[in-house]
Amino acid sequence: MNILFTVDRFGVEYGGISSAVSDLAQSLVKHGHSVTIYTSRLGSLTVPGVAARRFRSAYSILGGANFTLPMLLANYDFDVAHLFGSYYTFQTFATILRARCPIIYQPHGSVGFYRLPLFMDSLWRCIFDNSISRVISSSPRETDACRTVNLKNIVEIPNGVNLTYYTYLPPRSRGLFRSSHGIPPDAPLVLYLGRIDSIKGIDVLLGAMPYLPDNYQLVVVGDADSPYGRSLVQSAPHNVLFAGPLYGRDKLLAYADASVFVLPSRGDAFGLTLLEALACGVPVVVSDNCGLSSAIGGDIRLGTVVPLSSPLMADAIRHTVDYDTESDHAYRIVWASGHSWDKTASQIESVYRDVIEKQIRRKRLWQH
User: Fold this and answer.
1) Where do the domains of the chain lie, and which CATH numbers do they carry?
2) Which of 10, 60, 139, 286 is most exposed, with the fewest beta carbons within 10 Å of its own?
3) Which pLDDT belongs to residue 9?
């Protein structure tokens, strides 16, 4: 299949959606497909075997207004177009108007965050709903969010994790992150890694630290150069370290030295970093506002799901650190191996084939 991906931003600095798009594209290429990624903001991320192109944009009410994407859609025959992120972008508008192939939409947590003025929103939703062949959600939570805005034809396919990347740690790598940041080897290391935004609930995690013993160390990995990030840095207790954004090997070393990974989200459709931590064998503590919490909550060996409360989160962190074992570490890696991107790609391939076959049948009916 010749597949088009469109996403507003694509680069390691843009967070989870870029990681998901990149890993899915690589898996589809391994399955013998051709993938082209088009984005209005192309950062520092290259995907082997995948063409990632940036179209120049001047922002309008619908996002990046441009002419190169409509030209691409008019001149190339794609078998399917896969839209990621918000549907209020020009690339979505251009794809719907010009694509001659079935269109798949995958919100990645963007449902409900953006609205146009009432009349425009109703008109756009009517066009959008009648143009999308299938909606892919990543969790029961995201499925519910899609239904609240009346999206139809929803299929639930969880995100995956790059097992080759996260389950491989170089020899003698454990302890390197701690030593480079002055954290004692025996100190429980609480890790948050991801976007620093109020939706992630990092302030609640900082509020949990005074309830923990003084030897506990919280490391927050991410770009704190924002009003919210700077307010966290200014109010942080003495045992909180802001390490800045980490990528590649440095990110792996942070996971390798973590005693527990915490995602205190106020609302996450999935929670890709949870899968990354589990693939490294690290137990997790997650709020019940996260999509993946439904899969984790029933298995204490993976971690603990708690309401979004600083005291309750502190209790869960301490219990997880106190009762973690080496066998649990191995169990988490095995559990994560059942959530590979290869498995996710196979499920999405089935969706592609289904919508393509339906379009072919409709064309045959029209011809007769």
Assistant:
1) 2-160+341-367 (3.40.50.2000), 164-337 (3.40.50.2000)
2) 60
3) 77
